[in-house]
Each structure stands twice: as C-alpha cells, then as structure tokens.
Amino acid sequence: MADDKNDFVSQLQIRTKQFVLRSIKVFKALPPTEEARVIGKQFLRSASSVGANYRAVCRARSQNEFFSKISITVEEADESLFWMEIMSEAGILPSGKLSALMTEAEELIKILSKARKTVR
C-alpha cells in the first residue's frame, strides 16, 4: 500500500511539472500584445506555482502544513484555469490551443481537492 501511495505521489509530481512545462509553451505562443503580456505573466506565475507548491506538499512536516500547502496548490491550479479562460474568451489565443491544458488543470484541481479533503 505504501508503494501505491509513493507511486501516486511520484506520478503527480511528474504531472504537475509537465503542467508547468506545457504552460511555458502556451506562454511562448502568446501574441506580442500588451494584454497578452499582462495576462500571460499572471498565467505563468500561477501555473508555475502549481508544480512548485506540489513539491512543497510532498515535503510537508505535519498534517497542518500539508493541508496549507495543498490548499495553495489547488488555488493556483484554479487561478491558472481562470487565466486560460480569459485568454480564450478575450481572443488572445484560440480555445483549441488551450483546451488540453485546461482539461489538465481541471483534473489536477479535482485530484488535489480530493487529497485535501482526505486530510480533514
């Protein structure tokens, strides 16, 4: 059972890191407009925070620290999804370029939210 948990944690570390790397590619694909620059930076900050904060979750020294860090990770994933919605709805990037990453953000939010609930 411990191996299953370790595998899950490792796979989620890889997945959140891939989310960051894919987000960087989206950022690089943004048009050179002022609104894309502003929204893009907000998006990149929150998206990169997902991977960084999940690593911090894995190093939590207590249940309270775990809950706090995973809550931040959920919030950052949700904020990333928000900025992708804005990019799509504002016509900054076509929704087709964002749909797979938006789906990944939604899945990460569900997984991380469920992990947070198990701690309570």
Topology record:
Blueprint: H1 2-28, H2 34-58, H3 63-89, H4 95-119
Helix pairs in contact: 1-2, 1-4, 2-3, 3-4
InterPro entries: 23S_rRNA-intervening_sequence (IPR012657), 23S_rRNA_IVS_sf (IPR036583)
Pfam families: 23S_rRNA_IVP
Organism: Dyadobacter fermentans (strain ATCC 700827 / DSM 18053 / CIP 107007 / KCTC 52180 / NS114)
Shape label: elongated
**Alpha carbon gyration radius:** 15 Å
Order of helices and strands: HHHH
Please report the total strand number as a whole number: 0
Q: Can you count the helices?
A: 4
Q: Mean pLDDT across all residues, rounded? A: 95
How much beta, percentage-wise?
Answer: under 5%
Explained architecture:
- This is Four helix bundle protein.
- The chain has 120 residues and is mainly alpha-helical.
- The chain has 4 helices and no strands.
- The protein has helices spanning 2-28, 34-58, 63-89, 95-119.
- Helix 2 runs antiparallel to helix 3 (63-89) and helix 3 (63-89) runs antiparallel to helix 4 (95-119).
Please name the defining characteristics of this protein.
120 residues; mainly alpha; de novo design (two linked rop proteins); 4 helices; elongated
Task: Give a short summary of the structure.
The protein is built from four helices and no strands.
